[in-house]
Amino acid sequence: SHDNRLLFSCGNSLDKKMFIWDTANGFIVGSCLMTPDSIICARFGGFVKDIKGRETNRYQFATCGNKQIALWKFDAKTGTFEHDIINTGWTVREYTSIEFSRNKEEFLYTGTTSGDFFIFQIKNKVVAAVVNVCALGVTSVQAIDINTIACGGGNGTLALFRTDGPNVTPINKTMLTGAVNSLQYCEASDLLISATDRGFIYKTTLNDAKTYLHSENHTDSVVFLAYPPKVSDRFASCSADGTIRLWDVSEYLVTARCIALNAGTPLCLTYTDEVVISGWQDGKIRMFKSEDGSSVWQIDNAHKGGVTAILLSNNYKFICSGGAEGEVRVWELRSRQMISHLKEHTNRVTKLYLFNNDLHLLSASRDKALLCWDLKNEKRVSAHVQRMGGINSFDVVPQQSIVLTTGQSRKVTFWNLKETEPVRAIDTSNLSLIHI
After folding, report:
1. Dihedral-angle region of residue 316 (phi above 0 means left; psi in -120 to 50 means alpha; beta otherwise)
2. What strand order describes the sheet that includes 243-248?
């Protein structure tokens, strides 16, 4: 509610119940069956006004859904509800967002899937105006002041309008990245905050109607992180949303985005000051520039089923990659030709590690094995196998003689590369470690 005393919640079309909560003590102060049967959006709108325009002690709020709009009156002392269905006339729409006008709440603004918004007069509960905004629906509406409202569209449109009762005049339109799912006005700084389904948050200064990017993030699971060598204020992240983002931790900003169309999820990467080399779900290895995220080259059919691990050599002359079917391959960086194929794992390769001399390679897999390879002679020189559970990740101590592994066995295991049996194991059965 406008005074932060009440909270509205509702169930789905099967539950058909809605509740009003007291935010001070967490108790329910009222409940009833939903109207409409399936509520998409709800919004409080101050106190109910009497016939002379004076505020009463009853709260008002509106709900929309199932092509209907209901206007409610709620008495917090008695827990009683009253509601009326607003007459929309011959016009039928699916409503997606709802907002009361500022000050006296004389009008109700509702966005629709048809790309327009309706203005309803609350006193008579009839349509006062219909305003076209954009394509793909009006997904959010926000009243800024008595004479200004903002609308966000499914095609990324952010539109500002000047209102004088039911009369509406466009002020400005801006295109954002992604559908505008939410709008919020910050009165203290006179800013309009917009959030989109692509993970971007924008701020709009209302005195000049200019829009700036405030922050951004992934929109799905983050599956991999990597830092450049000996750098701690920058890192790169892979996400199931199909993007790689390069981050500057000192300012919490994204400096570049790496995108490949119809490539699935980026599964792994190695990050340097100049390039990002990444492995993708479609089985390709791709290189991007660290400066702007532009594509440099790609290796087709690097691994069947996806590239699950990748590593750049210390001398920057070759890369090593691991695949979903257990192959470990070495690629000459300049020609992008495969120069070695190592096949002994029987399951997904989870991580690779090169020793300082670039002659020996460690590979871990979900087949429970940690293998050491001689790249010069293209053969395995040692094998360490867990009794239970695949290896999710590992790391090597600075002296490069002890390896720590973790995985599905829920243990942190210490291995001496000169011995076949583990030196020590720490049980973490109450956790599920996926990286080390």
Report:
1. left
2. 222-226, 234-239, 243-248, 253-259
Q: What gap in Å lies between CA 203 and CA 195, rounded to an integer?
A: 9
Is the CB of residue 336 less than 8 Å from the CB of residue 298? Answer: no
Q: Distance between CA 236 and CA 279 in Å, rounded? A: 13
CA atoms lying within 13 Å on the CB side of residue 190: 7
For CA atoms 226, 228, 231, 235, the dihedral sign is negative
Alpha carbons within 13 angstroms on the beta-carbon side of residue 140 total: 25
Output the pLDDT for position 318.
95
Helices (H) and strands (E) in the chain, counts: 0, 39
pLDDT classification of 408: cutoffs 50, 70, 90: confident
Q: 359-382 burial, b if ≥16 CB within 10 A, otherwise e?
A: ebbbbbbbbbbbbbbebeeeebeb
Give the number of other Cβ atoms within 10 Å of residue 294's Cβ: 10
Q: What is the dihedral of CA 151, 11, 7, 198, to 10 degrees?
A: -40
Contact by Cβ (8 Å): 45, 58? no
Residues 316-364 have pLDDT tens digits of: 999 999 999 999 999 999 999 999 999 999 999 999 999 999 999 999 9
- Going by C-alpha positions, the residue among 156, 162, 150 that lies closest to residue 193 is 150
Q: Which of 209, 163, 160 is nearest to 180 (CA)?
A: 160
For residue 47 the two structure tokens come to 């106190």
Residue 77 makes CB contacts below 8 A (sequence gap 6+) with: 57
Q: Are 156 and 179 in contact (CB under 8 A)?
A: yes
Q: What is the pLDDT of residues 260-284, one digit of tens each?
A: 999 999 999 999 999 999 999 999 9
Q: How far apart are the first and last CA of the chain?
A: 46
DSSP string, 353-395: EE-TTSSEEEEEETTSEEEEEETTTTEEEEEEE-SSS-EEEEE
**Residues 68/43, Cβ–Cβ less than 8 Å:** no
Whole-number Å distance between alpha carbons of 338 and 349:
18
Q: Which amino acid is at 332?
A: E
Q: pTM for the whole thing?
A: 0.82
pLDDT band at 187 (very low <50, low <70, confident <90, very high): confident
433: pLDDT strictly greater than 60:
no
User: Which long-range contacts (C-beta less than 8 Å, at least 24 apart) are formed by 360-366?
Assistant: 361/320, 361/328, 362/394, 362/396, 362/403, 363/309, 363/322, 363/328, 364/391, 364/392, 364/393, 364/394, 364/405, 365/322, 365/326, 365/390, 365/391, 366/390, 366/391, 366/392, 366/407, 366/408
Contact 394, 413 (CB under 8 A): no
